[in-house]
Amino acid sequence: MNNPRWRFRPCALAVMTVLCPAMVWAQSYFNPAFLSEDTAGVADLSRFEQGHQQAPGTYRVDIWRNDEFLGAQDVRFETAAEETPPVAGGLSPCITRAMLDRFGVNISAFPDLTKATGDTCIPLTTAIPGTEIAFNFASLRLNVNLPQVAMQNSARGYIPPDQWDEGIPALLLNYSFSGNRGNDDDNSYYLNLQSGLNYGPWRLRNNGAWRYSQSNGQSQNEWQNISTSAQRTVIPLKSELVLGDSNTGNDVFDSLGFRGLRMYSSDSMYPDSMQGYAPTVRGIARTPAKVVIRQNGYVIYQSYVQAGAFAISDLNPTSSSGDLDVTVEEKDGNPQHYTVPYSTVPLLQREGRLKYDLVAGDYRSGNDDQDTPFFTQGTMIAGLGNGYTLYGGTQLASRYTSIALGAGKNLGDWGAVSLDLTQARSQLADDSRHEGQSLRFLYAKSLNGFGTNFQLLGYRYSTKGFYTLDDVAWKTMEGYQYSDDKNDDGTSDVQSYHNLTWNKKGRFQVNISQSLGDYGSLYVSGSEQTYWGTSDSSTWYQLGYAGGWQGVSYSVSWSWNQAVGIGGTDKLASFNVSVPFSLFTRHGFRRDSAIDRAYATASASRNSDGDTSWQTGVSGTLLEDRNLTYSVSQGHTSTNGASGSASANWQATYGTFGAGYNYSRDQHDLNWQMSGGVVGHADGVTFSQPLGDTNVLIKAPGASGVNIENQTGVKTDWRGYAVMPYATVYRYNRVALDTNTMNNNTDIENNVSSVVPTNGALVRASFDTRIGVRALLTLMRGNQPVPFGAVVRETESGVTSMVGDDGQAYLSGLPLRGELLVQWGNGANAQCRASYDLPEKSLQQAITMKEIRCD
């Protein structure tokens, strides 16, 4: 409460307003008598006399510039001077030169600002007219609105490079292991290891895989070194440097594997740019099956799926483009083979943007039937005005020369298009020489008003004499490539076929989706490649429809694939439906109920040979975090009779684990898979879920078992460390601890941190934790409680609080034993000290209450 203090001339109070009109208003002050008749029992509270005052100091606040979140930062708040109006609680933030750089202020346009150095506070509202600063103490949000004329000419979302974090030194290991045990010792295992070392800006990476198979008394054991490379960012050039095994870009030419050197512009270093693209691999499994995906001859993905349509959307290819060879190994012994095209959208750049890519090295693939010729490649893309983009490049090798030139155009409401022409001279494996041209057309458009998305629509026409560098690398003019796995009769399935006399002629590829609103959506994906010298073509298409009603989801899919040189055409149709159990309960859907998170499923399929299969089952999620998924099904196939399967996958703190069992009339098999990551750093070793390219190490010492917000299954280990995988590079990443999952003896100063990692970095997000007792202490001085409003501080840990009624003070993170310093004013007579010793059981209690004597 505020009590007005009046100053008046000596006259009778009863007639004061009549005889003494010249009263003077002085100020408001806080009368301690309102709290206690004994005013000596109240601390010096003069700092509150000016209204809603706050104590000066450093606060961790969320900074927003022009309604854009920049991140959390410690900001010093000082008592507002006369020339600096307060923003809240009588305080003003201390804006430093470093903060202006973070805001993106054009310092050179304001001479007064160029003189500011170090931690000097800048009166921003005076230095830059039109600036508005506001601070909300309740939400700890600092809003800074700057006039546009004061800003640097940078795109929205721009983060200065000096805020990019190269990360900490670390050893990294990603592992993925899967296995299968079938009848008669028919076993197979696959292990993929991705190891790395981070030191400063350098990233050393190795990717290798081990495969083992055993069938009919014969076994195969193979280790493949997929790639080894060293990479770093070159920030001044906004580029990436790669040494070793990698892949060329796919903007102008098709992506190729190489061993050598690559220097290229990094799109992700620019604001509002594309963060990367990987295709969604769709397919239909007639039975529980193993899906194997190869790229450039390497197995880059292997997993197990149930019968019905599937979609693999978390693919991490070794190349930024290049076709994906998909094999669906069915339990009935009839595998499916098809190719998913993987190309880019039209090449458009913003006006004034110049993008380059330089490569020199040996051609590299995982195919023993190809040579490794040395080649160089250079490409350039320039963004021009009026929505135009020009691009071109060249490839040079001893037996191959090509040059490409093209242009792209933003057509506004009509989408975007690019057109380019490539001229090539080639010398093939039979020493024959050829010359030809290839014309490529790409188109992309999202018709949002109609719900249509042309993700990619392209066509390439090549003359009879046109070949690529990949064609020139073949050692023979034609031949088959076989799978590494052996069949029961000792033979291997045909994986692919090449014939250089049947060089590529025309290729059409499409990926279109159409939303039907409440009635679901349609999609069509596919490609068709024709060749010179044969009427056969390689074709793959998939058409599908998906919809839902009151939680019931259903889909119909149809696929057709055929490959040149590999006999037969496989056509497959599938139907799937999923019905939630909550549809049959009276209380409706509840996430807390495992029953309501369960679904009844059914699927059926039929291929072009008349083989049919159907499956019915139950699937859902379990555990408090919904990180355990399960599926149980029973079905029938026309080839193997009755069948069944059961599987479970657990997304745990230290990895992901899965297991499945399948049986049919002639076969029983058990498969399992596990994956995870291991990080070695200066503070020890931390286990995690599978790592991404860029990751965040969370350091909250002593805070064990604390969940990480928006990260399924991720929580701190027994030491208080955790890894948050898949961070976004060159962007603010919000890292937050869930305080509701902390135990009774854990408190934290601030549960939110923000980091900006560079590509491949392991950045550290540190949190100041207070591990100790939560206590409500009654502080007595003699026979009286210490004064109301006194400040209490534990001398060793720095834990601080304020005394309330009857001498009570609440402190969290308090050590079991220590000394308290209590101050209620200035001078030695306005303070006392108290030693305390709490029992061990206090660490397990929600709150400990005790009376402490202060001398």
TrEMBL record:
<keyword id="KW-0732">Signal</keyword>
<dbReference type="InterPro" id="IPR043142">
    <property type="entry name" value="PapC-like_C_sf"/>
</dbReference>
<dbReference type="Pfam" id="PF00577">
    <property type="entry name" value="Usher"/>
</dbReference>
<keyword id="KW-0472">Membrane</keyword>
<feature type="signal peptide">
    <location>
        <begin position="1"/>
        <end position="26"/>
    </location>
</feature>
<keyword id="KW-0812">Transmembrane</keyword>
<dbReference type="InterPro" id="IPR025949">
    <property type="entry name" value="PapC-like_C"/>
</dbReference>
<keyword id="KW-0998">Cell outer membrane</keyword>
<dbReference type="Pfam" id="PF13954">
    <property type="entry name" value="PapC_N"/>
</dbReference>
<dbReference type="GO" id="GO:0015473">
    <property type="term" value="F:fimbrial usher porin activity"/>
</dbReference>
<feature type="domain" description="PapC-like C-terminal">
    <location>
        <begin position="776"/>
        <end position="840"/>
    </location>
</feature>
<dbReference type="InterPro" id="IPR000015">
    <property type="entry name" value="Fimb_usher"/>
</dbReference>
<dbReference type="GO" id="GO:0009279">
    <property type="term" value="C:cell outer membrane"/>
</dbReference>
<keyword id="KW-0813">Transport</keyword>
<dbReference type="InterPro" id="IPR042186">
    <property type="entry name" value="FimD_plug_dom"/>
</dbReference>
<dbReference type="GO" id="GO:0009297">
    <property type="term" value="P:pilus assembly"/>
</dbReference>
<dbReference type="InterPro" id="IPR025885">
    <property type="entry name" value="PapC_N"/>
</dbReference>
<keyword id="KW-1134">Transmembrane beta strand</keyword>
<dbReference type="Pfam" id="PF13953">
    <property type="entry name" value="PapC_C"/>
</dbReference>
<comment type="similarity">
    <text>Belongs to the fimbrial export usher family.</text>
</comment>
<dbReference type="InterPro" id="IPR018030">
    <property type="entry name" value="Fimbrial_membr_usher_CS"/>
</dbReference>
<dbReference type="InterPro" id="IPR037224">
    <property type="entry name" value="PapC_N_sf"/>
</dbReference>
<keyword id="KW-1029">Fimbrium biogenesis</keyword>
<feature type="domain" description="PapC N-terminal">
    <location>
        <begin position="29"/>
        <end position="178"/>
    </location>
</feature>
<protein>
    <submittedName>
        <fullName>Fimbrial biogenesis usher protein</fullName>
    </submittedName>
</protein>
